Amino acid sequence: MGIKENLSNLMNKGKGKAQESAGKATGDRDQEAQGRATQTEAGVKQAGENLKDGDIKGAANEAKDAFDN
């Protein structure tokens, strides 16, 4: 997996988590939902990267975690 893609996915997960937290703090349910969606999107992309690398177990775990948001 490319380091660039890995870092991008990690940054998007962090961005989504921050957005979700800000939404919770302000009571903005739309922002909270958008944050969860951003995290899910990053997790799915990371699962795809893991599959490209042949890491099926890692891909399955990443996909599961992505949808646990």
TrEMBL record:
Organism: Leekyejoonella antrihumi
Basic and acidic residues composition-biased segments: 50-69
Pfam families reported for this sequence: CsbD
Domain of life: Bacteria
Protein name stated in the entry: CsbD family protein
Annotated spans, Disordered: 1-69
Compositional bias (Polar residues): 1-11
TM annotation in the entry: none
CsbD-like domain mapped to chain residues: 8-53
